Amino acid sequence: MKLAAVLTGLIVSLAPMFAADVPRKAPEFVIDLPQGGQQLLSQYRGKVVCLGLFFTTCPHCQAAAQLMSRLQTEYGPKGFQALGAAFNPMAKMLVPDFVREFRINFPVGAAEREAVNTFLQNPSENALHVPQIVFIDRKGVIRQQSLPRNDSTVATEANMRKMIESLLPEPAGTTSKAKPHSAASHKKTS
Question: Are the beta carbons of 55 and 130 closer than 8 angstroms?
């Protein structure tokens, strides 16, 4: 029993070591739209972007997408843009019903799992929990993203509002002196 507790503690303490590099320049990411065509992440340079990477069948993803819709309505006029990409099996076929059923008001399409793993800097052999949430500033720099596993902080409404409100005032053309926001920095302390 003690060994299990020690191993669990070791794994939890090492988890941030396996997190992606944040901040980093966002690589191009392609979202295949269900009606045809593609949406490129780079099209939104100059806006604060929250990219949600979902499974259409995941209740946590459905809730995150609905939250992102509310935030899009509230912050969209100020320069915020929510985007979504589903990467579960048959995602491209399931996205239209997902958007309609959950009343999503931002662009949502599909992406291949390998493209998602590459974008997140997650080795394809590693598990990846959903939703994965990524915040990208106006300059195209990833400022926060979910940890690959067991991250219950990034997709919360409080965190999402905090990130949007901290990134919106930053100008698009200059380098920010702001401290990067990493999922690892949201670890709970006792």
Answer: yes
Whether the predicted pLDDT of 95 surpasses 50: yes
CB 189 within 8 A of CB 18: no
Alpha helices in the chain (DSSP H): 2-14, 59-75, 91-101, 113-120, 157-167
pLDDT band for position 18 (50/70/90)? low
Q: 96: pLDDT confidence band, cut at 50, 70 and 90?
A: very high
The pLDDT value recorded for residue 19 is: 79
DSSP, collapsed to helix, strand or coil, labels residue 135 as strand
65: closest CA among 181, 155, 168? 155
CATH class of residue range 20-170:
alpha beta
CA-wise closest residue to 134 among 85, 174, 175, 92: 85
All structural domains of the chain with their residue ranges: 20-170
CA–CA dist 3, 5 (Å, integer)? 5
| Locus of tokens 């990846």 | 128
166's CB contacts (< 8 A; 6+ apart) are 178, 181
The CA radius of gyration of the chain, in Å to the nearest whole number, is: 17
